[in-house]
User: Fold these one by one.
Assistant:
Number 1:
Amino acid sequence: MKFDYSPSRAFRTLLLLALIGAAGSAQPDQPLLPAPPELSVKSYVLEDFNSGNVIAQSNADLRVEPASLTKIMTAYVIFRELAKGNLKLDDKVTISEKAWRTGGSRSFLEVNAQIPLEVLLKGMIVQSGNDASVALAEHVAGDESVFVQMMNQQAQRLRLNSTHFRNSMGLPDPEHYTTARDLASLTRAMIEEFPQYYPWHAIKEFDYNHIKQSNRNRLLWRDPSVDGVKTGHTESAGYCLIASAVRDGMRLISVVMGSRSENERANASNALLNYGFRFFETRPIYKANEKLADVRVWKGDPSTVAAGLKRDFYATAPRGQSANLKASVDIDGLVSAPVAQGGKLGAVKVALGDRIVAQEDLVALQPVAEGGILRRLFDQVQLYFK
């Protein structure tokens, strides 16, 4: 008996088996994405505003100088004081000699001038006036150093764990630092909490004291979808830009740190935004305060509590894949009374295939008090046998 076992036939057989195996294990529904653009910058991050999902990043946790991006936190602190009623937009702010002497970018304020707080805020946001930053800090806290403490307190509250400030305007200091990721989180908080003030970041020109100055964010002229946010530059920090844009209801935030020129930071930011909008989409999953589950509360009155989310919940996925997102609700074991409203009960997770792409805390939508003695005894017996 003769066997035909030539090398060429054996190779063809192995190749056929390999192709059959590959076909059986292929996953045609898996998204094929190009890599983000290659950028000549120190660090960057691109994230979706609604979901908070990071779409692209490079050295996002590298410690960098924020330069005038610092003024986003300065504005944020002042917006919070306005919200509390501690300040008013028409408050008159007296310009100190220290503010007047502050170097760098200026709003050209005069010593002892009384200027409405709103005018100074716009001068700081649009013109990046260092003199306006110092004047505002002194007005809010009496002294810039005290105001800087407020800035760092807000950084801690927002969990910007890699950020620390030493001044209100962004002048270089070894202990004045942040990361691209932290700046994206700060910008997201500012836009979300203060939508009434955010449009000031889209103002292209601002005129004060008969001097007209232009916003340095070139994307405001290039791209009509861009509506902010802030530029920064020092010799040591390089050229930095936080940009935000909305297309078809989807808002993205890009942070570019340490580029070599104004044009390069604008080009890099534009490339990131275009990449995100072209290849990703964001979908609403659940509304805030919508009941997602009834959770058993042992020893409580009532014995169940409605569970949901504190805020609207979104997820970002590769374009064309959002229909494949799957949401699940996980409860953190046994829940016993008392339960505070907003108390964490578990998590809501959204997966794309076997990868978790978004997660939020599941919380109690109402408080639950301890039940009476009979309820507690009855539930204690039941728990003993569980």
Number 2:
Amino acid sequence: MGLLAHGASVDRSLRPASSVLRQAGAHVRALFGPEHGFASAAQDMVGVGSQPASETPVYSLYGDDAQDLSPKPEWLRGLDAIVIDLQDIGSRYYTYVWTAALMVKVAAAVGTDVVILDRPNPLGGVRVEGAPQREGYLSFVGLHPIAVRHGLTIAELMCWVCDREQIDRGVLDVVEMDGWRRALEWWDTDLPWVMPSPNMPTLDTALVYPGGCLVEGTKLSEGRGTTRPFELWGGPGLDVGPLLELDLHGVSLRPVEFTPTFQKHAGRTCSGVQLHVTDPWVFRPYEAYLRMLAAVLPSVPSEERWRTEAYEFVSDRPAIDLLTGGPEFRASVDAGVSVDEVLAQEARGAAKFEDERRAAWIYEK
């Protein structure tokens, strides 16, 4: 068999999935790594090379262009099955689920079975936030239109993708979790937290990520190059006063200064805030970050607001539009108007998806 996994693909005793499979008698003939690589060591959007000549070939599913995102059919031929063991974060931007979706699509085409070892959604399986993407705004931070905070496990999401792609769900052999319920948060599982990517060091990071990742679509720093990415964000000379006047629920904002060591504003002192989640059940990260960005970006010169470089292999649409799923938020900020209507649209879309996703549920309660 082949194994699609990463650094957080471990059992409760922290043994890597590849070792667990081999000790169980499986012949692991090929390894596949998503963004950040099989060892989860590379930074975001950094192409990772394959190692086909190694004793056990390691194939990268995140290279230098969009064609590198799908496995080559010849890599799967001769394998009885592909095992997918990826810890997701519960947000549509997190690319591991889309790597899994592309693997399922190719495996189904060549007749290779797929075994999915399901894992908990760190944000639980109840709450949904953010509307699915509008037509024309699909990308590798959302290959299918789903809510930003989707409330599905990776196995449930692959069932949903199969339905969308008209792939027989029979190609999937789901190893279900024992004891997981939709209302469980990560700390209810007693599982160790292992960071699945270099900038997802703690559960606190995962709690803010459905909103924190939006800062990637701006020229402000999302805290990469610090020890608290996505919780910290800001920019040189940014006026954080408007942020401290917002009425956000389930979170406290602390004004800070920080100096990123790499990526945006590396080596420069940034003014910003750190988010301290006080009530995860009440906190709505997607709405919170939309409101915070809308509060400060109008005071930032227009040419210094939005990221203009290619983002996840897309260069013809702004990154913020790919993240929010359409141009509405960016347009409202640039026009200096309230984002309340945008938020209402996002809430309506999320509610619609909340009903649609039940068709993919494996865990009912």
Number 3:
Amino acid sequence: MRVRYSEWDDNVTREMTLKNLMKLFTHLLTQSSGDVEKALKWMEQLGRRYGFFDKDFTVEDFKEFLKDENYIQENEAATAVTLTSKGEQRIRLDAFEEIFSSLKRDAGGGNHRTNYLGEGGDKLPETREFQFGDMIADIDFTRSIHNAIRNHGLEQFAMEEDDLEVNQREQMTSCATVMLVDISHSMILYGEDRITPAKKVAMALAEFIQSRYPKDSLEVAVFGDDVYQVSTRDLPYISVGPFHTNTKGGLELAQRLLQSKKQVNKQIFMITDGKPSAIFEDGRIYKNSFGLDPKIVNQTINEAVQCRRKGIVITTFMITSDPYLQDFVDRLTKANKGRAYFASLDKLGSFILTDYVRNRKKKI
């Protein structure tokens, strides 16, 4: 075996080090809900333990690098450090790379293909008779001329409407998605961090849709006691609170968001690890953490039925394997005729990707 040696390049080593430090930093930022100073403090502690900071490159040097690259900025009084818009985008891009790095850019130009025939997609070899309203560009002149010769002969060649055939086109559908992220207290219960992977998946899906399916739409909402919409820019900052799980409220908001969308396919992706334990009733929150409260469960199931009637498919990603909750998930899935996965945290991105891409192949 022949080995070729080259001159040691400190710049290459530094670039590799900075790339790895940035991945760690964006992960800690997601975990700290966008708190830059807390993330840097954690990095300093990890640096001391694992030795990736030294006298030649300290955490302060890394902090200056982040400022120079416009990932972070100090406020006017220099009392706090915050993320810039470029820093927020870097978190989303790193989440996308971590979860969907194996994907190749789709050559379809951002459309979801189905097995239905229609207008606006690529031409298919199959043809059909011309109908009023068909585009002239879709006429198959070879087959149309052949029909005219067969029907009228060469000597009295004429082309009439009955001779025309048009190429059929592959229908392109678009998809409107609402992702619901559970921020109830159980998302950090028993020392297991479930909210960080959930946020990463939401950020990665946003980047995935924008880069591969720009004609699609994605809205994100969080649900605890209350339910509210967040932008993809807000995702690093959301955090778990001492909340119950208002799944019904999440489904209600998702329906309102989807109602205004013009996309053909409409779906809800719900990431949760707990049972529904809260609903709004007469303007007040009704809570019950003990068992599956029939009032809460039934009203939540009713929302799933409403989604089905509107053609909205719910896909539930349960990031827990608790058999106690399986009955509720099964009931909700059957009521909606949707899908459910019991996904581990490390496979959550793959599950969501697979289900999202699946909708390219059929109309919901």
Number 4:
Amino acid sequence: MFSKYVLSAAMLGGLFLQNVQAGNLRIAVPKRATTTPVQQLNRDGVEAINKHHVDRAKKLFYQAYLLDPNDPFTLNNLGYISELEGSIDRAQKFYALAREQSYSAVVDRASKSGLRGKTVAQAAVILDKDMQVNRANLEAMQLLQKDQVLDAEEQLQNALKVDPNNPFTLNNLGLLREKEGDLQGALTSYQAAFSRNSKEPAIVTPDRALRGHPITEVSERNAQRIKRRLPDQDKLENKTARLSFLGVSAINRNDFGSARQYFKQAAELDSEDSFALNNMGYLSEIDGDHETADLYYQKARTGERSGAHVTAATRRDVLGMKLEHLAQDSDKKVNAVIDAERYARRRQQGPIQLKRRDNTPVIEPEPAAPAQ
């Protein structure tokens, strides 16, 4: 009454993922004259997955589900399809139902060691750790696609805490380092993924030519690609971009001292870089020097890389925005503050008090005594 195969490892929409739940289980079917319709539909679905025909597999598994909504392997396979579609919550529900229905189903063979002789329910529990890692990887890559680099890094670090040797997480960390402009860090991550020598296949990838290839091969190709790009690491633009990213990251850790150093280093390297100019404007705002901030924001609007998109920021709502638009928005807000301060000074009673840019009063000398 059980299908011969349950699905194997996957790579989700360019997000490199490992085996999950009862994924990759190969179940021995007792010899009998005929197979049940549910068995055959699941078998056909597995063959479709092996040929990367996900849509066809989904239809077959749902046909099996209509015939027997309690079959644990069908439920597991629908969970797998849900993962391929990026719906982790729905996948978890299917996996939970599969565990509930799997009391007597025993694993005969599995690509993951330690599962032979276990029930499918026990195997699913053993693989719960893999599910946690998969979810963190999926969320990280979705965040990365939205240019939310810092949040993506947090998810990948969480995945590494669960399994520090996971090759899919290490490979994804390389993708993130590339996004940050840290090519050497990306190379280190790709090489770490490659060194795990994992043969788990990548089923869904941006590059169709890599589908079904082991993750170790994918990570090796990524490493080779980065090696060709390494000479670009020392370019001025990459250096300032890296310093700007480190500064934003420091602010998100409430380390304003380090952020100030990174932003100033970036500005010293390239005084025309729009990101460096914008960040110096931000520092001036923090210091209460709105007029200097105004000058920096004006320059950032037309500086180098002003048309580039923001990939790391202290505000989520500006991620993906063009830097020139962000600088313009910041400039308007600073000018509004300056105008408000001028208006408030006009309404003040008493003599006018001269102040420096840091808001400290200017002590004027007493007038000299008249000569006699």
